[in-house]
Amino acid sequence: MTESNRLEAVIRTYENTLYRAALAILGDPHEAEDVVQEAFLRLWEKAPEFESPAHERAWLLKVAVNGCKSRLRSPWHRRTAPLLDSYPAADPEEQAVLEVIQSLPPKDRTVLHLYYYEGYQTAEIAAMTGWREGTVRSRLARARDRLRQLLKGEWE
User: Fold this and answer.
1) Are 120 and 109 in contact (CB under 8 A)?
2) Higher pLDDT, 128 or 2
């Protein structure tokens, strides 16, 4: 398989996963698309060897998460507002949950998405984000508490 065919296969396999993670962290579809493109560009430039598909997926997610963190730190990001007033969802209840999740701080959205939507354990999230494992667990607990409080207020 040629290098370009391999890259196309990797893109088809992981583009949705990376996009969902970036969108959950950034909350902006255009920024999320840019982060995904940058992750695949980094894969093309570096051409690392992977032990397994799980290792490749984790590497790409780590690159995407780091790209999101960089964008969130940039002064330009702080001066802009998200373009969408609401996010697409299948039903009104799911829409409400998505909007509440998007109202959480980026670090909370990051741990929630990687844990619940991508299925990573706290040790794996710590390796991807550069945080300590205890920090990931405490952020996850606080994010759950914030989410619970916000959702309780929505349905009372």
Assistant:
1) no
2) 128
